[in-house]
């Protein structure tokens, strides 16, 4: 069964949620000793329900959770955006990049990729509904609050989505450690989508066939290959160096 809600702890992640995705916040839990006026004003401004958090915590708090007297209940379904709604409203230009997860199974990797996507100015992370680790509380936690900052988009059929994006002008790159084309050779002068494959099997064959270019990250041959999350960080950094516009802070969501 898909997890419908989760809890986040601490002022920073709760502030990220309130600023960037207030529609996902069901309620905020506060300890009586919290005196941060700016933080309280932020809660008031968003109109989110507030409930007390006792000194001893609450049943939902994880053991040893560092909550700083602040926690929030999050609707995970509210985090995901429908593909059609997202793409029809997307500003597409040469500085637009998307990441598509292709059957990634480890939620730690999903969370880390989301964090890198936010760090390097990616416009959205496309997450298949099937054969893919879903967005869970662990994913949100690993993303360090960035799951509220970068759009997370629910997609159906991966290949159908790729074809649609190609028709909209996107150039499709598949990350493949066996590819002969090195990442550093790419200019990335068109709207770009990066396909990240399964941790063990890589990108599915039919999806590989839809890629315009397969790229690899040159490495010391004596070193084991990077995992998919580390590879994503390297790739997105390489893309962002040619697109400083993507690193310009965006206005907070007003949803």
Automatic annotation (TrEMBL):
It comes from the Bacteria. Signal peptide: none annotated. Keywords: Methyltransferase, Transferase. One of its GO terms (biological process) is RNA processing. GO terms for molecular function: RNA binding; RNA methyltransferase activity. Pfam families: SpoU_methylase (PF00588), SpoU_sub_bind (PF08032). GO terms for cellular component: cytosol. Residues 7-80 form the RNA 2-O ribose methyltransferase substrate binding domain. NCBIfam families: rRNA_methyl_3. This is RNA methyltransferase, TrmH family, group 3. It comes from Candidatus Azambacteria bacterium GW2011_GWA1_44_9.
């Amino acid at each position: 069964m898909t997890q419908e809600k989760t809890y986040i702890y601490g002022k920073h992640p709760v502030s990220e949620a309130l600023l960037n995705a207030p529609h996902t916040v069901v309620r905020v839990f506060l300890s009586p000793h919290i005196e941060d006026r700016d933080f309280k004003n932020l809660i008031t401004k968003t109109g989110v329900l507030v409930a007390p958090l006792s000194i001893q915590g609450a049943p939902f708090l994880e053991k040893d959770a560092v909550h700083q007297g602040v926690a929030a209940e999050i609707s995970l379904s509210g985090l995901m955006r429908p593909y059609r709604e997202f793409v029809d409203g997307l500003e597409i230009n040469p500085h637009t990049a998307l990441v598509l997860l292709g059957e990634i199974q480890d939620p730690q990797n999903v969370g880390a990729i989301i964090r890198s996507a936010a760090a390097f100015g990616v416009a959205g992370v496309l997450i298949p509904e099937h054969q893919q680790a879903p967005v869970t509380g662990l994913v949100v936690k690993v993303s360090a609050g960035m799951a509220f900052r970068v759009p997370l988009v629910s997609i159906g059929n991966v290949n159908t989505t790729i074809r649609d994006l190609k028709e909209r002008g996107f150039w499709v790159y598949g990350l493949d450690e066996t590819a002969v084309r090195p990442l550093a050779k790419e200019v990335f002068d068109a709207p770009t989508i990066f396909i990240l494959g399964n941790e063990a099997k890589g990108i599915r064959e039919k999806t590989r066939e839809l890629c315009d270019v397969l790229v690899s990250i040159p490495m010391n041959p004596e070193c084991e290959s990077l995992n998919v999350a580390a590879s994503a960080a390297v790739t997105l950094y390489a893309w962002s160096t040619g697109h400083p516009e993507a690193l310009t802070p965006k206005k907070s969501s007003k949803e």
